[in-house]
Design brief:
The chain has helices at about 1-25, 25-59. With about 60 residues, it is mostly helical.
């Protein structure tokens, strides 16, 4: 039961931190978010290309 409360507290603190950051430095927040999503998209495309290549080699 304590684990569930701890997860909620961490989630609330994360949301508060991101909100504070967004209002204190909106440009820095936007740049960081763009870089995070760009890097995530690049990683996903590498994974899916590898998966497609692997499945193509099976046939």
């Amino acid at each position: 039961m304590f684990g569930m409360n701890a997860k909620k507290v961490v989630l609330v603190l994360l949301v508060l931190f991101l909100g504070f950051w967004m209002f204190q430095d909106p440009h820095g927040f936007a740049v960081s978010a763009r870089e995070l999503f760009s890097g995530s998209w690049d990683a996903l495309t590498v994974v899916f290309r590898g998966l497609i290549r692997f499945l193509g080699e099976l046939s």
